[in-house]
């Protein structure tokens, strides 16, 4: 079936994108990947890359939700089976970063790896920032789970991932603070970082309080500007799942943030009006 479908695409009888649309969310798995494998055999990897990029096809849509929850390593290993990893550099980057973080890479060494990948793996900066942030959020999350709440630690297994060790969490953010600040300089990149947080916690079912912890710490350490949080709140973007549940966790905090920012602006206006002016120096006289 996959070979027949590939032949129809090559002959122009079927369009590339529409012929593969029915395989989303893991339907008829792994037929879509077998079809791509056959297309590569018939026309080569350049042909396949060109069409995937031109049609803006997301190979992750062909995985089931269950498979995606298993993480980047599982996705990359599956793509490796069919020789298609090169079509999904973002997940290859996630898997690489995940391994480095688990091995205890230093922020400086991680930065060197990011600089190499930024120029050789990904041309889309939003995608690059998203995958860097997703990897860091995932690592910080699992390293910050309260020890009595980890499997085998005496806590209720059903409560796993719901309790945070604030000391561990803050120490890790301090460790990677300069890295966050380096790659999240622009409003656009800060916004992508917030979506990465949203996406990660959507993938594990939004354990209580974690999105709020991230938003608070990113604001406290001046990594994300206050206005960016409002852009995230107001923007409608279906690319990243879970907006409603994420917003539910942080909505009260966002209202507080806007109140504080408004009060700060009012105080600055009062100071500007009442502050004495500096005397001008005329002809050198004091």
Describe the model.
This protein is mainly α. α3 packs across α4, α6 crosses α7 and α11 crosses α13. It starts with a helix and ends in a 12-residue tail after the last helix.
Which properties best describe this structure?
disordered C terminus; mainly alpha; 286 residues; 14 helices; 65% helix
Strand content: under 5%
Proportion in helices: 55-70%
The profile of the biggest β sheet is: none
- Assign the structural class, choosing from mainly alpha, mainly beta, alpha/beta, alpha+beta, or little secondary structure: mainly alpha
Low-pLDDT segments: 149-161, 270-286
Number of helices: 14
Gyration radius over CA: 24 Å
| Outline | elongated
Layout: helices, strands, pairs:
Elements: H1 2-10, H2 16-20, H3 31-43, H4 45-54, H5 65-68, H6 72-81, H7 89-102, H8 107-120, H9 125-143, H10 166-183, H11 187-203, H12 210-220, H13 226-234, H14 243-274
Helix pairs in contact: 1-3, 3-4, 6-7, 7-9, 9-10, 9-11, 11-12, 11-13, 12-14, 13-14
């Amino acid at each position: 079936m996959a070979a027949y479908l590939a032949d129809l695409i090559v002959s122009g009888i079927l369009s590339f994108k529409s012929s593969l649309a029915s395989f989303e969310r893991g339907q008829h798995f792994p037929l879509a990947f077998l079809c791509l494998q056959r297309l590569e055999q018939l026309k080569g990897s350049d042909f396949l890359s060109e069409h995937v990029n031109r049609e803006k096809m997301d190979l992750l849509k062909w995985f089931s939700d269950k498979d995606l929850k298993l993480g980047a390593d599982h996705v990359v290993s599956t793509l490796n089976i069919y020789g298609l990893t090169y079509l999904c550099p973002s997940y290859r980057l996630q898997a690489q970063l995940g391994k480095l973080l688990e091995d205890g890479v230093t922020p400086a060494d991680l930065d060197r790896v990011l600089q190499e990948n930024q120029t050789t793996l990904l041309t889309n900066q939003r995608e690059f920032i998203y995958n860097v942030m997703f990897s860091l959020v995932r690592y910080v999350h699992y390293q910050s789970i309260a020890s009595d709440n980890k499997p085998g630690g005496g806590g209720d297994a059903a409560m796993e991932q719901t309790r945070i060790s604030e000391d561990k969490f803050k120490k890790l953010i301090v460790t990677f603070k300069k890295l966050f600040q380096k790659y999240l300089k622009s409003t656009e990149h800060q916004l992508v970082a917030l979506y990465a947080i949203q996406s990660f916690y959507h993938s594990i079912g939004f354990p209580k309080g974690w999105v709020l912890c991230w938003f608070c710490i990113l604001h406290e350490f001046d990594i994300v500007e206050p206005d960016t949080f409002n852009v995230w709140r107001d923007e409608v973007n279906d690319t990243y799942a879970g907006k409603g549940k994420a917003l539910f966790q942080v909505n009260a905090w966002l209202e507080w943030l806007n109140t504080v920012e408004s009060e700060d602006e009012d105080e600055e206006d009062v100071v500007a009006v009442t502050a004495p002016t500096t005397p001008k120096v005329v002809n050198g006289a004091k």
